[in-house]
Write a structure and sequence with these properties.
The chain is of the alpha/beta class and about 210 residues long. The chain contains 6 helices and 6 strands, in the order βαβαβαβββααα. A 6-stranded mixed β-sheet has the order 2-1-3-4-5-6. Helix 4 crosses helix 5.
Length: about 210
């Protein structure tokens, strides 16, 4: 069983990644279990911020680390909130405040296309020269009002392309099947098996056909 520290104290993210990597022999624990404070995210790109967070978690725990940097990019807002998605309404903002500001900024806007992006980084140690990096995207649009009680972040406002429900209205399995994190995690799972030798659970490996 490979132990990884998740560079987050967000219980929702821990549960989601636990499910997404459920087919691998991985033990994920939140960095908050070691009282690791959140890392600053000053970089202008998702990949740089994910690397910063992974290095921070690995350095303070001495364990291999997994970090994600995710965000919502809205075309009508020039790509905002982007890398500042979690802090859109201010550094201490919660999900409700961020969602409210997004709706305010889009008031009267009819072209509401947007996409989620997720970058995942895995490091064996803080100075690992060969980080594993995976990407995932989900295209869709911003709804006129929040709907649904599931998920977190902008899930109550985001409608995936071709769907008629927000991510927050989907059950966890349905969301993970289409989400940006789900797609990045599937790519990362293949990298972890290929480069770190992380094993799949026996039942999962037995059911998998040729690559």
């Amino acid at each position: 069983m490979k132990r990884l520290v998740l560079a987050s104290g967000n219980a929702g993210k821990l549960a989601e990644f636990g499910a997404l990597f459920g087919g691998l022999r991985l033990q994920l624990a939140a960095q908050s279990d070691w009282n690791v404070a959140p890392c600053d995210e000053p970089a202008p790109t998702f990949i740089e911020n994910a690397l910063l967070k992974a290095r921070h978690a690995a350095r303070h725990t001495g364990l291999p680390a997994l970090a994600d940097d995710s965000g919502l990019c809205v075309a009508a807002l020039g790509g905002e909130p982007g890398v500042r998605s979690a802090r859109f309404a201010g550094d201490a903002a919660d999900d409700a405040a961020n969602n409210a500001l997004l709706l305010e900024r889009l008031h009267g806007v009819t072209q509401r296309q947007a996409h989620f992006v997720c970058v995942l980084v895995a490091l064996r140690r803080a100075d690992d020269p060969e980080p594993l990096i995976a990407h995932g995207w989900l295209h869709g649009s911003v709804a006129a009002r929040p709907c649904g009680d599931g998920g977190f972040g902008y899930d109550p406002l985001f409608v995936p392309g071709g769907a008629h429900a927000t991510l927050a209205e989907l059950d966890a399995a349905a969301k993970n099947a289409v989400s940006h994190r789900g797609r990045a995690a599937a790519q990362m799972a293949r990298l972890l098996q290929a480069f770190w030798g992380v094993a799949a659970h026996a039942a999962d490996a037995a059911g998998r056909g040729p690559a």
